[in-house]
Write a structure and sequence with these properties.
Elements: E1 7-13, H1 14-23, E2 25-26, H2 30-35, E3 38-39, H3 46-53, E4 60-66, E5 74-78, E6 84-88, E7 92-93, E8 97-102
Antiparallel strand pairs: 1-4, 2-7, 3-6, 4-8, 5-6
Length: 119
């Protein structure tokens, strides 16, 4: 169990992710830079995050991150609805990324998530 990957998620635009790949590091979206840390969501939080902050936005990617590779710079802090959200007080090294998938919109304008995304 100690080696189990604990996955957290970042929703990023295609342009933000292209910049990150070009630089070899993700510095954060504008909201992250303004707040001083990179906002992440757990699997049970990411759908609500998408609906609340990215409604009807079609150029998005769901980035999966192995939280154990982030070290002590990752903090779980109380945020929306008194839930603990993961916040990274550092730049995101792409070596911690385990997967990147498109987040298309369905016919109702809702984001489509991978079927294997745990709740």
């Amino acid at each position: 169990m100690a080696d189990q990957i604990m996955t957290i998620y970042k929703i990023a635009t295609e342009a933000q992710w292209a910049d990150a790949k070009g630089n070899g590091i993700f510095e954060g979206a504008p909201i992250d830079l303004a707040d001083g840390y990179i906002h992440f969501s757990t699997a049970s939080q990411v759908r609500e995050t998408a609906a609340k902050h990215f409604a009807n936005q079609s150029d998005l990617l769901l980035v999966s991150i192995d939280e154990k590779k982030l070290g002590d710079a990752l903090k779980f802090e109380v945020s929306r609805g008194d839930q603990l959200f993961p916040h990274l007080y550092a730049k995101l090294s792409l070596t911690a990324v385990t997967n990147v998938v498109d987040m298309p919109l369905d016919d109702n304008g809702n984001h489509v998530f991978p079927v294997d995304l745990p709740l």
